[in-house]
Amino acid sequence: MDIPHEPVRPALPAVRRVSAFAPLGWCLHALTDLQRAWLPALFYGVAFVVMGFLLFGLFARSPVMVMTLSAAFLLLGPFLAAGLYAIARDLERTGTASLRVSLTAWRGNVQSVTLFAALLAIMTFIWFRVSLLVFALFATGPLPTLDSLLTQMFAPADATLLVLWFGIGLAFAALVFVVSVVSIPMMIDREIDAFSAMLVSLRAVRANLPAMLVWAALLAGLALAGFASGTLGLAVTMPIAGLASWHAYRDMVSS
């Protein structure tokens, strides 16, 4: 009599340890990639700029919405940069990159990428609702404007509100970072399901905490530099972040 066997689950990719300063090397590799494939990479950069202009243009009279959606924009960043991962991958494999190929990079593992994107969208929606709820419950006067945000953050009346808002936003960002730092590049590179990719990402973060702190700071700095320039800087900073993320994946996860 045949005995049914449970299907054997493929072993997860091994995680490598990297130095605390490895993220600097990833950014240098990204600059090289940007020089080699500047046209397709800047296509994505310009797309980020356009999204930034729409964000600030549509909600110019509502700084709360601008701040909330800006944070949501960053939470979705790992998925929005999928084409940039494909550009870095193709440069590594063939020495050339195509915008057309990068636009359909997700099709090689469509089910996993779609599921992961849905999870990111759910987390972003939860952040959106929680953010507005915090402002509704804790605002003691006129809501802060973008120009006065840093000043009012230290004012007694609004300090609790803004510190709480930033604290919750940081928690959401940390969660997304931990589960996505190598997830989407991995799903574009190989056949792996979304939950396994997130588990590998978690292991990579746990094995490389010093490097991940540096990497998170660099990503935040790139995003802030892009927004501080009126979103024009996103044309360069976001491609650097996306291309460097591919090299982070290749450095920390075995082939």
From TrEMBL:
- Annotated membrane-spanning segments are 41-60, 66-88, 109-139, 159-184, 205-225
- What name appears for this protein in its UniProt entry? Putative integral membrane protein
The superkingdom listed in its UniProt entry is: Bacteria
Q: Output the Pfam families linked to this UniProt entry.
A: DUF2189 (PF09955)
Ribonucleoprotein listed as a keyword: no
Q: What species does this protein belong to?
A: Laribacter hongkongensis
Which keywords belong to this entry? Membrane, Transmembrane, Transmembrane helix
Which InterPro entries does the record match to this protein?
A: DUF2189 (IPR018692)
